[in-house]
Structures are given as C-alpha cells and as structure tokens.
C-alpha cells in the first residue's frame, strides 16, 4: 500500500537534510600533539610533581568530546616530550607537516598541543615558516592532565574553536591559553607555576575566547606566515646559535668558547639596552671578525634594544634585536643564517620580522 506524503513527512525530510548539511559544513581541524604538561601525568590529583608527555593525542582528543561539535577532528603525534626537550629536529618536522596539511583543501586549520617552557620559541618559529593564511593555534597547560581542575581540556576546546573560526584566518600563528589569544611574536611566559603565566606585555592580546566564542582585536603588524621569506622545506638541520647571559663581570671566554664549539651565531642576553661588559664586547667583536653573527638582545623582560644607542653596532658589526627577547632572537637568527651571514641583511630581518 502506498503511504501518502504528508506535510509532516516534508518537515522531517527538510530537518534531516538541514542536519546533514550542517554536519557537512563543519570545518576540518587536525590536532598535532608534541607533548608537554598538557599531556602530563601525576600519581595524584594534587601533587606538584609530574611527568610531561605521558598522554597520547587520542586520549587528549577523547578527553574533550565537545570539540566534535565544533569541527571534524583528527589527530597526529609529532612527538611526546616535555618542551624543555623541544629540538630543531621537532621544529622542522612540525613546520613541514603543518605546511603539508594546510596545503590540502579539506583541512581548515591546525591545533598544536605543546609544553609551556619553550612554547614562545616554537610559536615564533612556526609563524615564520608556515606558508598559509589558515589558522594555526597552539595551546598548552600549566597543570597536568591528571590534576585537580586541569586547565588543558578547556584550552584545547578553545584552540579548536579558534582554528575552526573563519575570522581567525590571516592572523598568523596564535596561542590560546586561559581564555586569551596571543600572537606568536608578542607573548612570553612570566611565571613558573601560575596558570595565567602567558602575557603579551608590549602589544597586548590579539583577542579573547570564552567557551569557544571568539573576539579578535587585531592582526600582527610584522611580517609573518605566507608573506615570510623563510622556508624550511628540504632543510634537515638548522645552524647552531648560542645564547649567552650577560651579568656583572661576565666571563668573556663564554663567547670565544661558543665560537670554538661551532656556533654560527650568538645572541647576547645583555643588561639594560642590550649592553655587555667592555671585555665581552671586545670578544664579541672578535667573533664578528671570524664570521659569526652577534645579536644584542636584553635580559630585561620589556622594551626595545635600539641600534647604535650605547653600543656602536655599525663599528662593532653587531645586530640589534629590537623587540625580540633572547629566545626569540635566537629563532630568527637561526632562520636568517639559512639565507645569509651578512650582518646588515640580518639587521633588516630583525627590523622586518
């Protein structure tokens, strides 16, 4: 017997079609896990000590089932280390994999889970080497996955929401932690244990997120992403760059030792406006004459290291880091040395990036 097609059937059919259309329109987000506290584990929920990089990407995804409502999710394990053990090799693997993924038409964004210790370095490296306007959102946690009131799950949820947001496109590599959205170049870790450890003190936040509802304030003003001229495609090793911390009466042979061990670049974490002792400056000048690029940064947390202020960079042959702290200056110098060892050209990179 033929069943008549009623208005009720029509409504059900339309609802079924709409439901599948919404599902089909969900963006595709890939989560790349590298380890860190966000994947850490402790024996109890309330102890300070824990081991980083114990939980795999599938468990991280499974712990936040709500992200499936935001996007179609897949995950890959790039590494599983505490970020104190982050390495050039992992950076290269991560950057190349992100570029491969974002080149696909069916991938709309990438989330990277990471430890907090070197998050700012990895984020800046990716901001210079990822060749796409699609969102790359890094996230982390200050408490391990087993902790009472762990911060990782909501950070992952917010990171996926940002990666799935069309308004996030063209804003470079972002970092989603504790309801804040930072740009890769501007943020830094400021506390050893505080959940609100990450701050963007000079430039401010790029936006905020509240349970996946995102508000963006700005885009980064320096060169990044698809407009960056740095590439790590086919690169299997980055040049050695050492950071030397300046103190009162610092031993200048730290600089000559770095040169003797094969450093192609040196970043001085100087005092004040990137200054160093007269003896250290003399040793830095010797290093420059041997073809080593020396960048003057500062151990002071905020401010700009100006060129030719208290040090005559033109005379000594050094490079001023401008706004970049020593850790980020090291990242840029590593990439710059893939292209040139000319200090004048590298100064242009520090002005531009």
Portion in helices = 25-40%
Could you give the order of the helices and strands? HEHEHEHEHEEEEEEEHEHEHEHH
How does the helix and strand content classify structurally? alpha/beta
* CATH A-level architecture of the largest domain: 3-Layer(aba) Sandwich
Written description of the protein model:
By secondary structure, this protein is α/β, with parallel strands linked by helices. The model is unreliable at 10-23 (pLDDT under 50). It has helices at 7-25, 57-62, 88-102, 119-129, 152-163, 253-260, 278-289, 313-316, 326-337, 343-352; strands at residues 28-35, 72-81, 109-113, 136-139, 173-177, 180-183, 188-189, 198-199, 207-210, 213-216, 241-245, 265-270, 293-298, 319-320. Helix 5 links the parallel strand 4 (136-139) and strand 5 (173-177). An 8-stranded mixed sheet has the order 2-1-3-4-5-6-9-10. A 4-stranded parallel sheet has the order 11-12-13-14, with helices on both faces. A two-stranded antiparallel ribbon has the order 7-8. The chain has 2 domains: 15-227, 3-Layer(aba) Sandwich (Rossmann fold), CATH 3.40.50; 241-352, Rossmann fold, CATH 3.40.50. Helix content is 31%, strand content 19%. It is built from 10 helices and 14 strands.
